[in-house]
Prior knowledge:
Strands 1, 2, 3, 4, 5, 6, 7, 10, 11 and 12 form a 10-stranded mixed sheet that branches. By secondary structure, the protein is of the alpha/beta class. About 40% of the residues lie in helices and about 20% in strands. The longest helix is centred in the last third of the chain and has 20 residues, at about 255-275. Helix 1 (about 20-30) runs parallel beside helix 2 and helix 9 (about 255-275) runs antiparallel to helix 10 (about 285-295).
Amino acid sequence: MEGKHTLPQVIVIVLNWNGSADTLCCLESLEKVTYPACEVLVVDNGSTDDSVAILRRAFPHLHLIETGQNLGFVGGNNVGLEYARNAGAEYALLLNNDTEVDADFLTRLVQAAESGPEVGVTGPSIYYFDEPDTFWSAGGQIDWKHGVTSMVGINQVEQGQYGSQPRPVDFVTGCALLIKMNVVEKVGMLDPRFFLYYEETEWCVRVRRAGYEILHVPASKIWHKISPVAREASPMVHYYMTRNRLLFLRLSDASLVTWANTYIEYARTLLSWRLRPRWRGKARQRQAMVQAIRDFSRRRFGKVEWNGGV
């Protein structure tokens, strides 16, 4: 690639909320990135521990914005997007703080994005940190008939099955999402009604419907410290995933068939969790799902205080 000043500027947005240990590791991996025209911005989302002091001691020249409150994934990243807009950057990269990156991952993402004006969003191959050859995400797909979104390639071992060239997908996860700022100007920022979960999927639907492509870039690689078991056990995750899936379907103008299939699925799940002895331990998850459906019907969005536990 050419000299530094001819490359499009990228603002890398890393959101931190009481997670300085993960954020430090992420920042250390970003220091090795080969793409020169990038600036790392940490948005601290109202941490109540010593995150800000720890990060500033480790990285004295770090660009860090303190929001002063927990704005969720959406609000925190929108603060970063506004910073990127004011900085005149051509791109913004949303990057989870619990990731570590390959040195050339950003170069690969930008190259794919620069391949044509029709490309709006690119995303890397994401692997489990504890199983570095196993996919967590090779892009995302949407089953519009059933109202289901899923990660392509999840739990598959890397065997070159997605090739080496960028490939179109329905969405890429907000864990690592590169977007052109002129596309943000056209479609808007993340929708704050989501707070967290489904926001990037709805964003990508807006991007695609505005006429842009979304690409998974197989040669771009990062590793994610995620625990699917912990997520599945969390009532909070069930709450936001349930409510925000319904919000996503409404904002995306899903069909009546999709709505019917979604509510049938929810009814079956709730009945199973209530009646089958093996699911007696799902009481808090069941409570969270019921409240989520109720809150959606009452148009209660954003951050919600509820009694389902964490």
